[in-house]
């Protein structure tokens, strides 16, 4: 090849490199613009270990993928960890979240951070647990926790068949709305009021199995003739059953609970829990993400309370109390199937 042809080749190479650079820059800019335009939704749960919140995150991830949005997730280190939830809200706002879904650990202490997020232009949706006040968030997607309590209260009343009740309530913790609603619903369903003589012991468990066992042991020491136990959730119920079994009372004491996780439903199947009210965390998250996407794209804000359903699960149905069996419960449960 002569010198003239070498020069032409070099010039063509430069042109091709320049054209390629322009093309790459155009693709990079388009990708950057697309990333900048992508809707960002945040999910903050109480913890990332409880199967209930694991299922909630799965529901949010599926809905985010379906809608083509970016999902940011965070969680407290333990149930009641408000500080890490506050930090998560701040981080998500910085990352451009247009909607933040949260299961508040401290229903009152989180409110100032929620107000700041809403003032910054994001919507905030509570999942599972309402804030105090409830209208601190734009909307609430949750189980009707009061109804969940009413259902197991009505069941327990029917199952006792007129036998005098000696009730232990294994609760959550003071001032947390979900615990208060379930507790009060149970009393309403059973037909007694707070302070009634039939309530012989009340202990807080934070919904923890080990604490549930300790609480039940304490109650048995105080009132050995307990014959009915209400528990805030199924881990607390499992702890209560262990304490009852150790005392040789597991067959003479009825336990009712709330959640509908797979382990809990299996305990219904095994007879450790007489009945439980099943809730649906995946649905809460799915509806929450969809509402966040709609707001980001149209400006339409969700509002008010959205009931995500509750079903009484028992293998010993009672006349006049609607229920489904453990087979239905296992088909719709969350956690380790």
From TrEMBL:
Signal peptide range in chain numbering: 1-35
Q: Which residues cross the membrane?
A: none
**Xref: Pfam families:** Peripla_BP_4
Q: Keyword Signal, does the record have it?
A: yes
**Residues in domain Periplasmic binding protein?**
41-301
Q: Give the keywords, sorted.
A: Signal
- Localization per record: Cell envelope
Cross-referenced PANTHER family: ABC TRANSPORTER SUGAR-BINDING PROTEIN (PTHR46847:SF2), D-ALLOSE-BINDING PERIPLASMIC PROTEIN-RELATED (PTHR46847)
Q: Which family does it belong to?
A: Belongs to the bacterial solute-binding protein 2 family.
Protein name as it appears in the record: Sugar ABC transporter substrate-binding protein
